[in-house]
Amino acid sequence: MAGPLRSITIELGDITSLTGLMDYLVRNDILCWVRREEGLVGFGELLRIDTSGPDRFESAQQWWRQLASSAQVEDHIDLPGTGPVAFGSFTFSSKSARQSGLIVPRLIVGSRDGKGWLTQITDDDGVELTAEGARAALEMVLEPASDAAGEDGTGGGLSPVPGAAPEDTVPAELSTGSLSEEQWKSAVLEGVERIKSGALEKLVLARDVVAHLKQPVDTAQVLRELAVRYRECWTYGVDGVIGSTPEMLIMVEGSTARARVLAGTLDRANAPHADWHYAENGLTSDEKQRHEHQFAIESLTQQLEPFTSTMTAHSEPFVLELPNVWHLASDVTAELAHSNGHLPTSLALAAALHPTAAVCGTPTGAAAALIHELEYLDRGPYAGPVGWMDAAGNGEWGIALRGAVVEDPQSIRLFAGCGIVAASDPEAELAETWAKFRPMLQAIGMRS
Length: 448
Fold this sequence. Notes:
Elements: E1 2-11, E2 31-35, E3 38-43, E4 47-51, H1 56-69, E5 72-75, E6 85-89, E7 100-104, E8 107-112, E9 115-124, H2 131-142, E10 172-176, H3 181-196, E11 202-213, H4 219-229, E12 234-238, E13 241-245, E14 248-253, E15 256-267, H5 276-283, H6 287-304, E16 308-313, E17 318-321, E18 325-336, H7 346-353, E19 361-362, H8 364-374, E20 385-390, E21 395-399, E22 403-408, E23 411-420, H9 426-443
Parallel strand pairs: 1-5
Antiparallel strand pairs: 1-9, 2-3, 2-12, 3-8, 4-7, 6-7, 6-20, 8-9, 10-11, 11-19, 11-23, 12-13, 13-22, 14-15, 14-21, 15-18, 16-18, 17-18, 20-21, 22-23
């Protein structure tokens, strides 16, 4: 019989190896949020809400608030991410045909600062929650992972070492997405002309390609590849939305909020050598890159300010080094202000901040309208918030970048976008999209 949510969180002391949570990335149906081998991995689907339209965030927030307020929680760890947790993915546009929403898993394995835990969640009044029962349930969901046939949601042919490339690379072919390369460059050129005319200051244009695999995609293997190659990014997997984002929209722990803003990109493949000065000169000294980054940081801080009592941001952006590109980055830290006796939740802040100039443009309304006109693309969850939230409102919401949507077992749609300003060159922007496709192309075995 269904009743209120009940959960038990116990210590799980075996997440101490160098591979950390990646030992649990073994099923294709997992929910995943991992960085530096720590984070959260969810198993099974207990409850979900699908939402759409302009009220998609608020509908999900109200649903989760009702569940969390009546939940019976036994928590022996008491950290952000313990107790009941919902994973979520939200579309970039309120007009998207794809659903947004939250998913509550049955089991969650978490790790933070070397401490591991296991949470079991149920709404069945007949289920007794005990430490022994939670561990037994985890063993059951992990057991099929050794089945080479890949049944019951598990991946087949897993590499023995997390992150190692499979012995037989899965062959795949790429096809054009909504626009051809020439059509997309024409869209960039039109965007530049609109900016020069004064219609807007910055525009972010995305494009897509589709990978057609000869065999069903091993999602668990893809997530492990991303988590190993891109340790400084947040590797995510929610309901077929997978990737490794370098950009944190908002992270909330108690009364403290943090964000990481990226805008300005330099492809490492074009570098004459791995020279830090080359990256600094190509980003911090480049007027176009600095201009693009300034729009992004101002967009976020202006949107976040009404929810804060104090806020600190870097006076100068820093260069973030990733395996495929360098970025201009800025970190923002803020103390949240109470409103009607409550602090804003992480999802409420994500809704207020989205979309930022980093993924839409400036001003937001004009940029969003031009995106709709020029892209010929339903972005779906691309560039929308993806992450998790616990019952206390803590959570981490990244921007779904450097990722893809698994559309069917053998088709994956990849997305990439670029910030367009008056000085943008269509050919250079096209090359930047291929640099941003690289993480997913590597993960599915199409690029080294």
